[in-house]
Design a protein that fits this description.
Helix content is 41%, strand content 20%. The chain has a 7-stranded mixed sheet with strand order 6-5-7-8-9-11-12, sandwiched between helices. Strands 1-2-3-4-10 form a 5-stranded parallel sheet, with helices on both faces. It has 11 helices and 12 strands. The protein is of the alpha/beta class. The longest helix is centred in the last third of the chain and has 18 residues, at 219-236. The chain starts with a strand and ends with a strand. Helix 1 packs across helix 9 and helix 2 crosses helix 3. The chain is globular, with a radius of gyration of 19 Å.
Length: 279
């Protein structure tokens, strides 16, 4: 089992997976070898190699970074993934891989953001090493083109680049993709970002205290489906018996406290449609 990073979102998926296996009496039928590497290409590959060296009969991966590494390192060992945005479009596909994908409607989060103020230039933080986050960037770019909003491309390869680019680039709002690299290290540079006094939105839960709007897939639902897939594999020993699942339902969180601090509008629509409001 390889995490793309030690993030709350992945931990919630894993917690639900373990709970489901215990409830259904499968907890004694499987032994996890868990790897939580730093979110970078070499670390992911090394983690997958360690799992393979233990003669694993199956590799479970969280996030597109670890998923791509697993596909690269092994074409024969079955792989089951979770927390991968638009897997097919992101290149997370093959004969030996199945899993739980999801989609967040970026058009909705940008629409909500525009209701809080005049947005003309949105920066998008993503990772070149995590293919799903590049797909998210492209989705944001396509939506913003129709809305006449400029998009500032902010690819991140190393943690230190986050602070540097937050400080030097010009933008009036920021969108965090589901990049493990970005989400793990963004809090280290929050003081730099706050000097900009602009709103941030996110498409993965975990940084709600910093994010004005968060529209995220439910990690617990992903964990439950992952458990179902794993049980099916235990019973059948055949990756082809597992069907890919695409989760489309998302949870909306609005940080009203942050909106007030930034002097933004507080639209009634956000208050009524949010699943959670931070006051």
């Amino acid at each position: 089992m390889v995490f793309s990073g030690d993030l709350p979102f992945y931990r919630e998926i894993h917690k639900e997976l373990v709970r489901e296996l215990f409830d259904k009496g499968y907890d004694q039928k499987i032994r996890f070898i868990v790897q939580r590497p730093n979110p970078d290409t070499l670390a992911w590959s090394n983690a997958v190699r360690k799992v393979i060296a233990y003669d694993a009969s199956l590799i479970i991966v969280y996030g597109s970074g670890a998923a791509r590494a697993a596909l690269y390192e092994s074409s024969s060992i079955p792989i089951i993934y979770a927390a991968v945005y638009e897997p097919e479009r992101s290149g997370i596909k093959g004969k030996n891989i199945r899993g739980v994908g999801y989609r967040v409607p970026v058009s909705s989060i940008i629409r909500y953001l525009r209701k809080t103020g005049d947005i003309k230039k949105i920066g998008v933080l993503y990772s070149d090493s995590e293919p799903s986050t590049k797909t998210q960037y492209n989705d944001v770019k396509d939506v913003c083109k129709t809305l006449s909003i400029d998009v500032v491309k902010i690819p991140i390869r190393r943690p230190g680049e986050i602070g540097e680019r937050l400080r030097l680039l010009s933008y009036d709002s920021l969108l965090l993709t589901s990049s493990a690299l970005v989400n793990k290290y963004f809090p280290d540079y929050i003081l730099i970002f706050r000097k900009k006094s602009v709103p941030m939105v996110a498409i993965m839960e975990g940084l709600e205290e910093y994010s004005l709007i968060t529209l995220s897939s439910d990690p617990r639902k992903q964990g439950a489906i992952l458990a179902k897939n794993l049980i099916q594999f235990i019973n059948n020993r055949d990756i082809d018996s597992i069907k890919n699942t695409a989760l489309l339902k998302n949870s909306l969180t609005f940080n009203m406290k942050l909106a007030i601090e930034l002097g933004l509008d507080i639209p009634i629509e956000l208050l009524t449609e949010s699943d959670r409001v931070i006051k």
